């Protein structure tokens, strides 16, 4: 986990090749003191990191981001509105490279859409 105590996994399932993971965001994390004190906003790069960590959990390997395409930030993730975030992803392995397509939702509102590739690191 890149940011210690930033989130915890509440549930994680696989259904017909799609992974669904619900996480609880720590709205009191130090990150929000600077981003932003009166209106906390989860940085986009942190949302992208959540998907990398999801791919690492699913593949049981440490990964490095190779490319991120089709990254669309569609709504702000504010932990004061809702501390829960739903990550839906599909992960396919081709020639040692993991390809992920994911959607992050807060309160049924899509916050992020991402397509990314990762390679294992030693």
List the helices and strands and how they pair.
Elements: E1 7-15, E2 18-25, H1 31-34, H2 44-59, E3 63-73, E4 84-94, E5 97-106, E6 109-120
Antiparallel strand pairs: 1-2, 2-4, 3-6, 4-5, 5-6
Give a structural overview.
The structure is a single chain. The longest helix is centred in the middle third of the chain and has 16 residues. This protein has 122 residues and is of the alpha+beta class. The protein contains 2 helices and 6 strands. The mean pLDDT is 94.
Number of helices: 2
Strand count: 6
Task: Report how far the terminal alpha carbons are from each other.
Answer: 17 Å
DSSP strand (E) fraction? over 45%
Whole-number radius of gyration? 14 Å
Q: Any low-confidence stretches, pLDDT <50, length ≥5?
A: none
How would you describe the shape?
globular
Mean pLDDT: 94
How can the largest sheet be summarized?
6 strands, antiparallel
Helix-strand string: EEHHEEEE
Structural category is alpha+beta
Strand neighbour order, sheet with most strands? 1-2-4-5-6-3
Helix content: 10-25%
In short:
The protein has 2 helices and 6 strands.
Task: Sum up the structure in keywords.
alpha+beta, 2 helices, 6 strands, 50% strand
